[in-house]
């Protein structure tokens, strides 16, 4: 595992990238970049070793050069000194700022790998960030995978509350976060993840570090309220031309399948595919269906490798 830091020019903050790759991966496929959602940083969400391996491990074992990004204010990525020292709270890590971070990360990865393009994979808000980026320019994007993507909704979001809209950041309470996921599982699935120790591993990953609880920005939540819940799409899916895969769990309450299917119907790509994973929730990468999910993504990338997904 490699750790990389990029210094942002506009404010001096640092972006954190994590990399995993097998020997020889640089000679095979374009790099893969994973982009996280509104709560868990990429270094936690994509590299949690359940049953001994994470999603990043799975991709690396398949021969991929895989990277994850922590957007500014998440995980090991920082915000600038001016924001830290401000007398009043400043909203950071909204979608536009996240796109800037994604652009910086792609430029860095392409330089490191001497590659022209990356395969982009986004989860939830991360799917929005990747979707907006690909809709504006696909010069550096070979393919796009949207996992549980956001879209227009007329139902409440569990993240949008009076409190989150009034504050610049929030403390992630591990027990409440776990309840949001665990209580939405079918009893049989709850039993599996408990016996396997996955629930405890996620709890441990969310625990305090150096005595400090996990704090994350609320910029993305403000965007949910301003755009998705207000009938204002942040991008036009019709403008996306690259090969695109969309995946959502049938039991996803955060981004329900009906809104994901509405997004899929508007995608402009001539090569697109959607998969609904039975029994999966918004957090299916931590659930028994994770292996089927990982295999779907690898199958999609392999199809693009073969030139059949362009």
TrEMBL record:
Signal peptide: none annotated. InterPro entries: AB_hydrolase_fold, AB_hydrolase_sf, Hydrolase_4. Residues 56-288 form the Serine aminopeptidase S33 domain. SUPFAM superfamilies: alpha/beta-Hydrolases (SSF53474). Keywords: Hydrolase. Pfam families: Hydrolase_4. GO terms for molecular function: hydrolase activity. PANTHER family: MONOACYLGLYCEROL LIPASE (PTHR43798), MONOACYLGLYCEROL LIPASE ABHD6 (PTHR43798:SF5). This is Alpha-beta hydrolase superfamily lysophospholipase. The lineage of its organism: Bacteria, Pseudomonadati, Pseudomonadota, Betaproteobacteria, Burkholderiales.
